[in-house]
Fold these 2 entries.
Entry 1:
Amino acid sequence: MAKSVKEQLIKQLALGQFISGQAIGEELGISRAAVSKHIRGLQEIGLDVFCVTGKGYRFSQPLRLLDKTVITHQLKNNSFNLPVEVHSVIDSTNSYLLRRVPHQVKQGQVCVAEYQNSGRGRRGRQWISPFGSHIYMSMYWCLEQGISAAMGLSVVAAIAVSDAIKQLYKVDVELKWPNDIYAKGKKLAGILIELEGQALESSHCVIGIGLNINMPAKAAEDIDQPWTDLQSVVSNEIDRNQLVSTLINCLITRLTQHKESGIITMLDDWFKQDLYLNKPVRLITGEKETLGICRGINNQGALLLEVDGQVKPIYGGEVSLRGLL
Ligand code: ATP
Ligand code: BTN
């Protein structure tokens, strides 16, 4: 389906009223058969469109689209003059920014999208990204100190996501080292940090955040672990534009704090929210599994794992942490 037709169709349906196939066809200059094909295309990307004979098509719920103007107006730090791009359909917001590194990106540049057709988690896993339901957002951040400083970035970003949620909805979340945000014991959001650069040079980082807001039942069928969404833990209605602006504000604040004073100044915030603090855990590294007790993180963002009475730092990479109880 051509992107422009898809976008126009979505904009019309987002108004929340029934629109007949004929009216859509006339507006977009396509046949009714083409309209129904495009509607199927929308259903395939996760939009819940239904049809009533004699009335036409409608979204099952009103849809408020992401809006660049609304997002940028709520940004706190105007001096940054942050470029924010809002896309309807994209492969992955992380891939998009990575393709622009190093010359076509500015510090703090943001890309958000309504839909990702190749949303990624760590180690090439898929991130389920239905249209208009959640937040898929990436920010470019250059670390002059080089790749070593990037190690704790997922910890910094996870704290920023928690700050934003707390600020807007007064809800507490849990943080699972190294890159997950949980609510009531289920995965609410994930962070994907991708880097370019050499050890001693500036490191180009893309910080990707996938935050579930309102999971459609069909998309949920493809997720193979317990998940949750923000609408299940928050009673007010969620305004995704306001949430995106707040996420950007909180990220910039925490990244600046990280640059100026390091993770050491955020340890308290992490420890208060650490999902597994002082609990027995299983650390999975490829084929190897280590049992231990989680003792939080150190000032570089490494996991502190106690095994046989000895606490050792575990640096990120190809490792996963699981609870034992
Ligand atoms: P770990 O990072 O400890 O290995 P993980 O199993 O959550 O934990 P990730 O790579 O962090 O792995 O995340 C990708 C996984 O998240 C996918 O394999 C899938 O199970 C799950 N997932 C995919 N999309 C979503 C989503 N929208 N919401 C919640 N979970 C999702
Ligand atoms: C994880 O839990 O493994 C991380 C998930 C990260 C998903 C986000 S959505 C925005 C950005 N673009 C991507 O393709 N992935 C990240």
Entry 2:
Amino acid sequence: MTATVRKFGHGTLELRRGDITALTVDAIVNAANIHLQHGGGVAWAIVLKGGGIIQEESDRIIIARGRPLETGEAVITSGGKLPAKFVIHTAGPIWGDGDEDAKLRRACLSSLKLADENKLKSVAFPAISTGIYRFPLDRAAHILLTAATEHLAGKTGLERVIFCLFDEKAFNAFASAMTEI
Ligand code: AR6
């Protein structure tokens, strides 16, 4: 697995290439939809490996709230059979829906805030919105890394924030964005 690591505040920001469902971290972030129906992309991979309990817990969250998530909101479930203890589900923006940059930033920051509220030390993100939701990769990399570095530089208990990129193209986009931060 290719990796690159940089220190920000008290924590480290890491880029890795690979499958996020394989990571042993406190939480992995799911690039979900507002209904938490995990039927495709990384969401499907998470449920496939973590088990139906993740979909069941997600359904219970939606029923208890009585409404879908807003774009950029985040909620947490257990990690089921995953090596990660928890899954933080956030709904990123669909490219073309308007105000996408701010919504993507919010998805990242609300996930990090939820990780802190649950006293987690390590959290791994996929490239939210850059798959089925078609957010341009370079632009997403810049927004996500900027948000994560700002959070790490502030008051946080997080020690490791990882971006786990599935393919070389995504890894290279994040590696390039990292040099501009
Ligand atoms: N590990 C890491 N990254 C992955 C993995 C994996 N196992 N699998 C895919 N990716 P997407 P979105 C990357 O489409 O664009 C779902 O149906 C992928 O290459 O999963 O936010 C949800 O339920 C891409 O770079 O999420 C929503 O309906 C990134 O993860 C919708 O798709 C995100 O791609 C969300 O679309």
